[in-house]
From TrEMBL:
Record's keyword annotation contains Nucleotide-binding: no
Record key words, sorted: FAD, Flavoprotein, Monooxygenase, Oxidoreductase
GO biological process, one term: benzoate catabolic process
Organism encoding this protein: Piscinibacter koreensis
Name of protein: 4-hydroxybenzoate 3-monooxygenase
PANTHER family xref list: P-HYDROXYBENZOATE HYDROXYLASE, TRK SYSTEM POTASSIUM UPTAKE PROTEIN
Taxonomic placement: Bacteria, Pseudomonadati, Pseudomonadota, Betaproteobacteria, Burkholderiales
Length: 397
């Protein structure tokens, strides 16, 4: 098979890239190692920046997002037994975020892809990128029926997440990686219960961090900071008790509990691999960088990379210019490092770090107090939370 762009990975990065390239008249094949149901079963991010919404619109897949997504103008910070609202909308001159699950984004992209008859290969084994340092790269894989397949292409997009094959195919000497692993995880629970508050609550508590989020007016997503043990060790009752203990009295009182639909522990990590381009292999999303989820930046960084990448590939074909491809890595990394900084800062501010002791807790309390009482400090939080701009004209092709 021959295509212009072979996309490895059918997560949000790969599917969105496929949709944006299709809009620009560029052929792509998406090759995914898991089944479509498995990909849809992963419960992950829930908050979309305006940049992500704009890109989904540009890709023509924002109809349901506009109908069902929940626009949020603020977040609440809970500490010292009380909640304090950060009015992001007022502080950023009218920007907001949209609460809409990654599962739904992925479902919309999958449906649009199959409705347009675009090729996606699921359950591909031994997916391998080849010869990306030359002019004729290709990807090989074993199809579900056991047959050996080869896709010749102009570019390979590595959208295969943190554990994917693309970054691992790059010679170690060509890569520099930066990493911080946090000594705790997040235990997440999804439940068909009404959210405790109509905005997200990020709580700093001496027992540890907690987050109250949602997927819809009838479905809640809650997290508590935990040790990296097995999620099975947590009964639903133990989870609800722990969450309640970390909220202010009013929220604790009004929290509606119910059976968990999903319960899992996610480790927290900051990670960046530089550069993001090796000849004709371009990495995007979690394949190149990971942030701890505290600032809700993971998915949004992935879509921003893809925005830059789709524009760069579009420029290659429409204008016969590789300026965008050449600038791709540096452009992404500038924005990536700013989001890494924000996610690290927000994680450090909100979580319990045993090693910092009572001094660290007092410093966090002082910073939170400053944050909610200083317009300058809350503006910096709001500006980063709603998302930094993409330095690119988005509408092309
Ligand atoms: P994904 O979503 O990991 O998709 C990569 C896809 O590539 C496939 N793949 C391969 N395909 C072919 N061949 C191979 N060798 C392959 N290896 C892997 C995988 O099966 C998968 O389908 O990466 P992408 O598209 O870059 O999207 C990034 C986002 O998914 C990610 O940043 C966020 O979900 C991060 N994240 C969260 N972000 C938030 O903003 N808020 C959250 O609450 C949040 N929770 C999470 C998360 C990430 C998690 N991970 C990665 C463990 C919770 C978890 C558990
Ligand atoms: C979520 O709804 O899953 C979510 C929201 C905000 C975050 C992280 C996760 O910062």
């Amino acid at each position: 098979m021959r295509t212009q762009v072979a996309i490895i990975g059918a997560g949000p990065s790969g599917l969105l890239l496929g949709a944006l390239l299709h809009k620009a008249g560029i052929d792509a094949v998406v090759i995914e190692q898991r089944s479509a149901d498995y990909v849809l079963g992963r419960i992950r991010a829930g908050v979309l920046e305006q940049v992500t919404v704009d890109l989904l619109e540009q890709a023509g897949v924002a109809e349901r997002l506009h109908a069902e997504g929940l626009p949020h103008d603020g977040i609440e910070l809970c500490f010292g037994g009380a909640r304090h609202r950060i009015d992001m909308h007022a502080l950023t001159g009218g920007k907001r975020v949209t609460v809409y699950g990654q599962t739904e984004v992925t479902r919309d992209l999958m449906q649009a892809r199959s409705a347009a008859g675009l090729p996606t290969v699921y359950e591909a084994a031994q997916v391998t990128p080849h010869d990306f340092d030359g002019a004729r790269p290709y990807v090989t894989y074993t199809a579900k029926d056991g047959s050996a397949q080869r896709v010749d292409c102009d570019f390979i997009a590595g959208c295969d997440g943190y554990h994917g094959v693309c970054r691992q195919s790059v010679p170690a000497v060509a890569l520099t990686t930066f990493e911080r692993v946090y000594p705790f995880g997040w235990l997440g629970v999804l439940s068909d219960t009404p959210p405790v508050s109509h905005e997200l609550i990020y709580s700093n508590h001496e027992r540890g961090f907690a987050l109250c989020s949602m997927r819809s007016p009838t479905r809640s997503r809650y997290y508590v900071q935990c040790s990296l043990d097995d999620a099975d060790a947590w009964s639903d009752a133990a989870f609800w008790d722990e969450l309640r203990a970390r909220l202010d009295p009013e929220a604790a009182e009004s929290l509606v509990t119910g059976p968990s639909i999903e319960k899992s522990i996610a480790p927290l990590r900051s990670f960046v691999a530089e550069p993001m381009r090796f000849g004709r292999l371009l990495l995007a999303g979690d394949a190149a960088h990971i942030v701890p989820p505290t600032g809700a930046k993971g998915l949004n960084l992935a879509t921003a990379d893809v925005g830059y990448l789709a524009a760069a590939i579009g420029e290659h074909y429409a204008e016969r210019s590789d300026a965008g491809i050449d600038a791709y890595s540096a452009r992404c990394l500038r924005r990536v490092w700013r989001a890494e900084r924000f996610s690290w800062w927000f994680t450090s501010l909100m979580h319990k770090f045993p090693e910092t002791g009572a001094f660290g807790q007092r410093i966090q309390a002082a910073e939170l107090d400053y944050l909610v009482h200083s317009v300058a400090a809350s503006t910096a939080l709001a500006e980063n939370y709603v998302g930094l701009p993409l330095e690119l004209p988005l509408q092309r092709g």
